[in-house]
Every structure is written in C-alpha cells, then in structure tokens.
From TrEMBL:
InterPro entries: Mig-18-like (IPR040282), Mig18_Fn1 (IPR055119). This is Abnormal cell migration protein 18-like fibronectin type I domain-containing protein. PANTHER family: PROTEIN CBG04538, PROTEIN CBG04538-RELATED. The keyword Nucleotide-binding does not apply. Keywords: Signal. It holds the Pfam family Fn1_2.
C-alpha cells in the first residue's frame, strides 16, 4: 500500500492572501500539490489565511473528495485525514483488479496450464493439461496412458506438470534421474513442461531432451517442423 501525505497550514498574512512555496494566491485560488492534492487558499477579513486540502487527485486526473475513496482501473484510492490532521492518499489493489487483460474470476489457458484471475489481480493456477488435453487439478495426480501425471504449484510461483511411469512412482531403489534448471528431479522415462513452453523428457541415460515446443494456446510444435494456427506460424528449430 502506498501513501502520500500533506499538512494543512494556518498563518496570518498582511497581504490578505496566501503564500505557499514562494507563490502568492488569492482567496479561493486552487492548485495541485505533489501531483496528488488539490489545495485552496482561504482568507479572512482580519488578514488570517489558510491553505487547505479540499480533495486528492489520482495520477489519471480523477478527483477524490476528502474521507472518500475511488476505484480507478486496478487500484482503489482513498483520501482521508489522519489523527494528526494530515491528509493522506492511499493506493491499494482493487479487489476486482484484472490479471492483465483478464477479468476477476475469468479462466484462461496458457500452454499446458489453466489459470484463474483471483481477488486483487492475483493469477492462480487451477489445473494442468496432460496428453490429449486430460485435465489434472492443481495438487492432484492422474493416470494418463503409462504415466502418473501430477500438476503442481510451488511456493515460489513455479508451476509444473510432470509424469512418472506407472509402477515407479513409489520405487525405493536407485534410479536414473534428470535435474532441471530449477533443481527439480525427474525419473528416467518421465516428462514435464518446463518454463511453460517446452515439453521435456528424461532419457534412460539421464539426459534431458526436448520433445516439442508449446505455443501459448497449447499447440505442440515438433522439432524442425512448422505449424500454422490461424494467422500465426510457429516453427521450433
């Protein structure tokens, strides 16, 4: 949460006007301070004057009355006076903020992953797609062909779908493994999606091989082949 604050001034000026940052203002004049606060000069017949904040202004130019809030795009802005008499403008993510172009609650697919836009514009993994577009919910496993396929979302934000050949998922003997760029271990014969765009497998010799590349819409592009999807041409070399 970001905050900006300003203090209201009360002074006496024989010129019957307001002086602020070296500038002189007449009674009723307004201006914007720090690109965030709408200031106004107020004077009295006895020469007393004050500069007060009448409202806040967002970077997009929207005005927020004191002690009120405004939703502007993905953010909610609040303009208020604190206990010390300071005017504070705070910015927080709007509960209904978008995830890029996706509305809150909307789901979309990126390669082999299904995401949903959560509260505050948080992108959440919902499920993964295995062979033949079999859907595996996040944190769950499913038998697909000769593999046990698992969809995982790690605490560091990494998402992964990987498979282990059936009958070896609980093996205790030493087996050949591949280690990917994130330090994850993969048994020989297993496959996984790396960096959301490469379908990789672990060979019996422990070598990591790329089977194909995956476009954003989930289309698989084999090595040295060209695939046309609508107006887009993909080629993995």
């Amino acid at each position: 949460m970001e905050s900006v604050l300003l203090i209201v001034l009360f002074l006496i000026n024989p010129l019957n006007g307001c002086i602020h940052d070296g500038n002189t203002y007449k009674d009723g004049d307004t201006w914007v301070e720090k690109d965030a606060f709408i200031m106004q000069c107020r004077t009295k017949d006895d020469g007393a004057w004050m500069v007060e904040i009448t409202a806040c202004k967002t970077p997009s130019g929207e005005t927020i009355a004191l002690n009120s809030s405004l939703v502007d795009g993905n953010y909610e802005w609040k303009c208020s006076k604190n206990e010390d008499g300071q005017i504070v403008m705070q910015k927080t993510l709007n509960e209904n903020a978008k995830c890029d172009e996706h509305e809150r609650g909307e789901q979309w697919r990126e390669t082999s992953f299904l995401f949903e836009c959560g509260a505050g514009g948080q992108k959440k993994l919902i499920a993964c797609f295995g062979q033949n577009n079999e859907q595996i919910n996040v944190g769950e496993s499913k038998e697909i062909g000769e593999f046990i396929v698992k969809c995982e979302n790690f605490s560091n934000g990494t998402v992964m779908i990987h498979g282990v050949r059936k009958g070896t998922e609980n093996a205790t003997t030493s087996e050949v493994e591949c280690i990917d760029s994130k330090g994850e271990h993969h048994a020989a014969g297993s496959w996984w999606i790396d960096d959301q765009q490469y379908n990789k497998t672990c060979s019996s010799s422990g070598k990591t091989e790329v089977l194909n590349c995956i476009a954003k819409d989930g289309t698989k592009i084999p090595l040295n082949e060209e695939v046309n999807v609508g107006d887009t041409k993909y080629k993995y070399v």
